[in-house]
Amino acid sequence: MAAESGKNWVLTVTAQTPTNIAVIKYWGKRDEDLILPINDSISVTLDPDHLCTTTSVAVSPAFIHDRMWLNGKEVSLSGGRYQNCLRELRSRASDVEDEQKGIKITKKDWEKMHVHIVSYNNFPTAAGLASSAAGLACLVFSLAKLMNVRDDHSRLSAIARQGSGSACRSLYGGFVKWIMGKEENGSDSIAVQLADEKHWDDLVIIIAVVSSRQKETSSTSGMKDTVETSMLIEHRAKEVVPKRIIQMEEAIKNRDFPAFARLTCADTICVLLIDLIKIKAFTFQDNQLRRKMESFQGTPQVAYTFDAGPNAVLISHNRKAAALLLQRLLFYFPPNPDADLNSYVIGDKTILKDAGIQNMNDIETLPPPPEIRDNNPTQKYRGDVSYFICTRPGRGPVVLTDESRSLINPETGLPK
Ligand SMILES: Nc1ncnc2c1ncn2[C@@H]1O[C@H](COP(=O)(O)OP(=O)(O)OP(=O)(O)O)[C@@H](O)[C@H]1O
Ligand SMILES: C[C@@](O)(CCOP(=O)(O)OP(=O)(O)O)CC(=O)O
């Protein structure tokens, strides 16, 4: 067992991991336990300054079993997915030594030592904003650091994948591809970085959070139903996605926004149409705004996409287009009278400034968008959007070395 037995030392690591939004979606599994997809997917990692998971992990000889706290509440780690990740990580752990603290853990010790995991998402959990992606990636990344797992990010992505498919893409910043792989054991089903966040850093992403309540249907069960009941899903995976993946990689490489936007919208609509559970998202999407945005100027100004819920993710090709988009969004979706601007538009607030909006009155007095040519009163959707998040492509996981950012009390090994 670890050195200085009898001494209740606690060793901790804290990490921060981004979420990601797929522009070519993962939808459907060929293996439910190993979480192996039926198609490749591509995502944009979102800036963790705005949406992220922070996870602190600890090991101590005093811990009697593995425990996890999520957003302030203790949750069970008994689920197969968590257990698969923990088992994989333990089997790859290496010796850890901290001479200052007199700690020595051998590779073998990890089999019987227990960990505490304390995690916090700075955005709604299980509400269609990919909390499982950031959450499971952070769990795997932070434990890998604690356990001195020497695998590279691609190998770690294959472990995170077993926690939640989309989590494998959150091991990298920028633009990421999850290669579906062919092997039965999933060893080649890994994420790779296509380009880092600086490659195309003028993209602005605005998320319209329509509902931050827990979704009625999880992505896991939604895609399972689709695979079991839809004949179209196989056609999408075999015929449609492979071509789109090539085109999307090209669009990202060349920063070709019109191609990027067309492919993103086409893919989300394809999944929406195949998957009837998304009827709510479709209702939101099929509103005036999208049609107006599409008819506004010849080339696409905005890409839109949806995950398994009604929240819309809108990607603008630069800050100018984003400011115009935000003006239109706030014109059509003004907040309820009791809202305050600071909590109605969160994330990168400089886009608000670019849009010339400083207070609630500026929203109420926004002129109708120029594409409204007739003088008919325009329907507004006050209160239909809970809030907007402005963000951009962001970096991959990082270790937070500042002790004050740790979520674990270093004396007790329990949440602070
Ligand atoms: N920080 C975290 N640490 C560990 N597990 C987490 C964390 N955040 C979320 N999870 C797990 O992910 C589950 C939510 O996943 P789910 O796929 O239902 O929603 P989502 O990821 O928020 O939405 P979507 O995948 O549709 O965008 C939670 O119930 C929890 O088990
Ligand atoms: C619509 C999606 O966001 C689906 C994400 O599904 P999850 O990764 O949450 O599902 P599990 O692998 O069952 O945990 C599309 C995507 O992110 O590619």
From TrEMBL:
Enzyme Commission number(s) of this protein: 4.1.1.33
A Pfam family recorded for this sequence: MDD_C
Top-level taxon: Eukaryota
InterPro entries cross-referenced by the UniProt entry: GHMP_kinase_C_sf, Mev_decarb, Mev_diP_decarb, MVD-like_N, Mvd1_C, Ribosomal_Su5_D2-typ_SF, Ribsml_uS5_D2-typ_fold_subgr
Positions of the Mvd1 C-terminal domain: 205-399
Annotated Diphosphomevalonate decarboxylase-like N-terminal domain residues: 18-191
Enzyme class: lyase
Keywords, comma-separated and alphabetical: ATP-binding, Lipid biosynthesis, Lipid metabolism, Lyase, Nucleotide-binding, Steroid biosynthesis, Steroid metabolism, Sterol biosynthesis, Sterol metabolism
Catalysed conversion reaction: (R)-5-diphosphomevalonate + ATP = isopentenyl diphosphate + ADP + phosphate + CO2
Keyword Nucleotide-binding: yes
Listed PANTHER family: DIPHOSPHOMEVALONATE DECARBOXYLASE
Sequence similarity: Belongs to the diphosphomevalonate decarboxylase family.
Function: Performs the first committed step in the biosynthesis of isoprene-containing compounds such as sterols and terpenoids.
Protein name: Diphosphomevalonate decarboxylase
Lineage: Eukaryota, Viridiplantae, Streptophyta, Embryophyta, Tracheophyta
